[in-house]
Specification:
This protein is of the alpha+beta class. It is 38% helix and 19% strand. It starts with 8 loop residues before the first helix and ends in an 18-residue tail after the last helix. InterPro entries: cNMP-bd_dom, cNMP-bd_dom_sf, HTH_CRP, RmlC-like_jellyroll, WH-like_DNA-bd_sf, WH_DNA-bd_sf.
């Protein structure tokens, strides 16, 4: 019988792609104390103003991060999947500035901030890996800002689809790859800064142009390079940058 995967395996997998981690480093990460909780679709993982007394790491599922403006409008500013940091391990904790809401069933681990800070101070490779992951997150956030700037609707939606593909296929997209869309058209509109009507019209146009195929909630990408070219998608933040990785060749 196959033993169950260690709880923090998604974290180790993510950090191992950011810096070389020894077997001892990986074992130390897996041994971190943590509490697991499950969040149902539509429920909040984090609410604005929450004080989280630790470091939250997403283990499974898809969630989105959003803010609510004074007029009540929702602005989705990022997506989260397995291995993502949902906050920084600050001590004392700072109140959350955002809402994080589950789109699918989500599992989250809460690691005491002092535990991960002590581990990263004592193990340089783990510290470098965490810094590498934070740098990748910042790059992705800058791409989101660019995506809702002066870009046409097709490019905005193409970028979002590219990100969802990378989250579903850690090895990267390929011709014929597919995803089950975890978002409604209302949520796509809130993530791309266009209207729901425009989202519907743009998706139909992309399908008519052969850029995507749709089967209910499944999106198939016939030509991955075409989609990434339209999106101006840069895969660098999504892939490991260790010497010898395919991304380095």
């Amino acid at each position: 019988m196959t033993p169950p995967e260690p709880l923090l395996a998604p974290l180790v997998a993510r950090l191992s792609g950011r810096a070389p981690l020894s077997a001892q480093d990986q074992a130390a990460l897996l041994a971190l104390p943590c509490q697991e909780r499950s969040v149902e679709p539509g429920a909040y993982v984090v609410k604005e103003g929450d004080l989280t007394p630790g470091w939250q790491v997403q283990l499974a599922g898809v969630a989105h991060r959003h803010r609510i403006s004074a007029d009540g409008a929702r602005h989705i500013v990022g997506m989260h999947g397995a291995g993502d940091f949902l906050n920084l391990p600050l001590s004392p904790p700072a109140p959350s500035e955002d809402f994080i809401q589950a789109l699918t069933p989500v599992r989250v681990a809460l690691v005491p901030a002092d535990a991960i800070l002590a581990l990263s101070h004592g193990r340089l490779s783990i510290f470098k890996a965490i810094c590498g992951e934070i740098a990748a997150d910042l790059s992705i956030y800058r791409a989101w800002i660019s995506n809702v700037g002066r870009r046409e609707a097709r490019a905005r939606i193409a970028y979002l689809l590219c990100e969802l593909v990378m989250r579903s296929h850690p090895g990267g997209g390929s011709d014929g790859c597919s995803i089950t869309l975890p978002m409604s058209q209302v949520e796509i509109a809130d993530a791309t800064g266009i209207t729901t009507v425009h989202v519907n019209r743009t998706l139909r146009a992309m399908e008519a142009q052969g850029i995507i195929r749709r089967q209910r909630r499944d999106i198939i990408v016939p030509d991955w390079r075409v989609l990434t070219r339209i999106a101006e998608f840069r895969p660098a933040p999504w892939v490991s940058r260790l010497p010898g990785d395919p991304s380095d060749r």
